[in-house]
Write a structure and sequence with these properties.
Chain lengths: 232, 45
């Protein structure tokens, strides 16, 4: 693994996709975030997470589709390819997307304070209310979408999100059925019951970080294995 | 290279499902042990 190759891969990405990112990601996001924060105050973080998700989920789509077949022929090994893509997914996308949203937010608030005398400009408001758990889960989600972009060749964002929803629905059903059976055994005379599986809410911050790190490690290793399998 | 990804995914999913079943069972049994009055009869309002 050479650092030179990683730098070259990053350069290759920006040469090929820099313009596309600017036209379809950065400028639309800046405009949407500006209008959004001008009209209301909430919902902006969700927009950022959505954009990061779409960006990450499409990362390998261009690499594995027929249009990006030459990427497979780039003289770099799988470790280098996955590391450069991890830099793009974990550093480039969140930093660029959230800083653009922050700037748009400030500009919209400035304009609003010029138009409406009572409005206040508060730059810190954008970052307040973000907890450690949310940041950690953003990165865990990035690792899942990253794997989705390696696994599915087309429409990977939609496919990954629907598979995740399907799996969580399946697990909820499993928990529900187990709870029903247990209650029927323990208290057969009961007609209704109340059971909450609050595994994640009851976790302390340290355990949340550990869980997220486990999820990230699992999906990055799996992406690596998958890329090794599909490599020509 | 052999294809391992699908197998790893399926096995992890099964282990997770087993873990959820076990943790739900343990939770309810613990609740029954600690607060048996909740399970003893239907509470009428």
């Amino acid at each position: 693994m050479k650092r030179d190759n990683i730098v070259k891969l990053l350069k290759l990405y920006f040469i090929e996709n820099g313009r596309r990112d600017l036209m379809y990601l950065i400028i639309p996001l800046a405009l949407i975030a500006f209008v959004f924060s001008f009209l209301s105050t909430g919902g902006l973080h969700f927009l950022g997470v959505l954009f990061v998700g779409i960006f990450v989920a499409r990362l390998f789509e261009s690499f594995t589709s027929s249009a990006g077949i030459h990427y497979l022929m780039v003289p770099a090994n799988t470790k280098e390819k996955i590391l450069s893509s991890m830099i793009l997914a974990n550093i480039y996308a969140p930093v660029v997307i959230f800083s653009i949203m922050f700037v748009s937010n400030i500009l919209a608030k400035l304009l609003r304070s010029l138009l409406v005398q009572t409005a206040v400009v508060d730059g810190g408001a954008f970052f307040s209310g973000i907890s450690l758990g949310q940041i950690v889960f953003l990165f865990a989600g990035i690792s899942i979408l990253f794997f989705g972009s390696v696994y599915f060749r087309k429409k990977s964002f939609l496919k990954t999100v629907s598979v995740c929803l399907g799996v969580s629905a399946l697990y909820s059903t499993i928990i529900f059925i187990t709870a029903v059976i247990n209650y029927k055994i323990v208290a057969p005379e009961f007609e209704s019951f109340h059971y909450e599986s609050n595994l994640i809410e009851n976790m302390s911050d340290a355990w949340t970080v550990v869980l997220a790190l486990l999820v990230m490690a699992f999906f990055y290793v799996l992406s690596f294995i998958r890329l090794r399998e599909t490599e020509v | 290279m052999k294809k391992y990804t699908n197998k790893i995914l399926i096995i992890t999913g099964l282990i997770l499902a087993l873990g959820l079943i076990l943790s739900t069972t343990v939770n309810i049994q613990k609740e029954y042990k600690n607060h048996p009055y909740k399970f003893s009869k239907i509470i009428e309002e």
